[in-house]
């Protein structure tokens, strides 16, 4: 999530009142547009170098030109689970012989207290059904694409935005069993091939050690908003990055998060925000509380703000704060 806030063009809010929960898949036209973040404008306003700003925030820096080829070379393509051919979308989500997804949408409150979120409870037979995709099939900084495009390119059943790894040059990034970055900096989230998922300290290990221990995916953003079923003390004061344009993740914001119920049993959560009368967004403690209410014992915050999006069967389910999806560097998705 980057500051200053994205230019807000909130959608017309649906009528709300009281608290309701429904299970449905909403289909609507996907808006395909990319909005450049506010970093360059911030630098211009403070007399920063235009050349430095271009290099930092806009210039694509490709480190791996073909992620598909990297996965093939590493042999991880051959180790992924065979995808089911019997999958079908239902009124409440998706089912196949390997995957069950249950979608819920929840709206509470009215006016300035209105809040809306979308949750996908996911159960898979094999951890490799949860996969990652990079924009343009490349790895590096400032390489972006619309999440719906990435989801379509990979036939994703369900997708959410990831950690926007391309906005920074730190963190441990292992995706689909391949190491792409080994610059420990913060608490990360590790998905293991045996199905368990845990928060870990990047600075206490290395990408190779994690891979050797059976890690399939890592995400590097945070913080953890739920640990052993409880919201950690002081989570509301944590900052993830201090670089220009990304100072704080605090306050009531649109959010994307991962919750862990058990092995191969996850929750993808998107909370809408910045739209009074529809959804105000949440702070980090409240995000953890929502995940706990969904049965999770571990919860981890991902990139949010205008990036927060959930895509089901090719359609955007939530209402992004930009009025449409924002281009980002990566997604996490359910393959089938």
TrEMBL record:
The keyword Hydrolase applies. InterPro entries: NAGPA (IPR018711), TAT_signal (IPR006311). Residues 1-16 have a biased composition (Pro residues). Keywords: Glycosidase, Hydrolase, Membrane, Transmembrane, Transmembrane helix. One of its GO terms (molecular function) is hydrolase activity, acting on glycosyl bonds. Residues 155-334 form the Phosphodiester glycosidase domain. The chain crosses the membrane at residues 34-54. Pfam families: NAGPA. Residues 1-26 are annotated as: Disordered. This is Phosphodiester glycosidase family protein. It comes from Brachybacterium rhamnosum.
């Amino acid at each position: 999530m980057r500051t200053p806030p994205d230019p807000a063009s909130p959608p017309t809010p649906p009528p709300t009142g009281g608290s309701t929960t429904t299970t449905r898949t909403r289909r609507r036209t996907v808006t395909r547009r990319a909005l450049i973040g506010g970093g360059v404008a911030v630098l211009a306003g403070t007399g920063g170098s235009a050349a430095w700003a271009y290099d930092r925030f806009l210039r694509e820096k490709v480190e791996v030109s073909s992620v598909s080829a990297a996965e093939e070379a590493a042999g991880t393509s051959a180790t992924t689970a065979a995808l089911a051919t019997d999958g079908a979308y239902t009124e409440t989500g998706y089912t196949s012989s390997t995957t069950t997804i249950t979608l819920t949408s929840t709206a509470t409150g009215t006016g300035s207290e209105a809040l809306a979120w979308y949750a996908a409870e996911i159960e898979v037979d094999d951890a490799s059904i949860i996969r990652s995709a990079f924009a343009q099939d490349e790895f590096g900084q400032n390489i972006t694409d619309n999440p719906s495009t990435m989801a379509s390119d990979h036939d994703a059943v369900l997708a959410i935005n990831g950690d926007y790894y391309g906005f920074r040059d730190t963190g441990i990034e292992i995706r689909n069993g391949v190491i792409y970055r080994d610059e420990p900096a913060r608490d990360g989230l590790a998905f293991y091939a045996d199905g368990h998922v845990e928060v870990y300290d990047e600075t206490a290990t290395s990408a190779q050690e994690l891979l050797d221990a059976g890690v399939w995916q890592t995400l590097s953003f945070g913080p953890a908003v739920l640990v052993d079923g409880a919201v950690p003390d002081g989570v509301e004061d944590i900052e993830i990055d201090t670089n220009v344009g990304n100072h704080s993740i605090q306050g009531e914001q649109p959010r994307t998060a991962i919750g862990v119920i058990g092995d191969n049993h996850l929750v993808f959560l998107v909370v809408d925000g910045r739209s009074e009368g529809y959804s105000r967004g949440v702070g980090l403690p409240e995000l953890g509380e929502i995940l706990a209410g969904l049965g999770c014992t571990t919860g981890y915050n991902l990139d949010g703000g205008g990036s927060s999006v959930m895509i089901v069967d090719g359609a955007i389910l939530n209402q992004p704060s930009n009025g449409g999806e924002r281009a980002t560097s990566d997604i996490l998705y359910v393959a089938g």
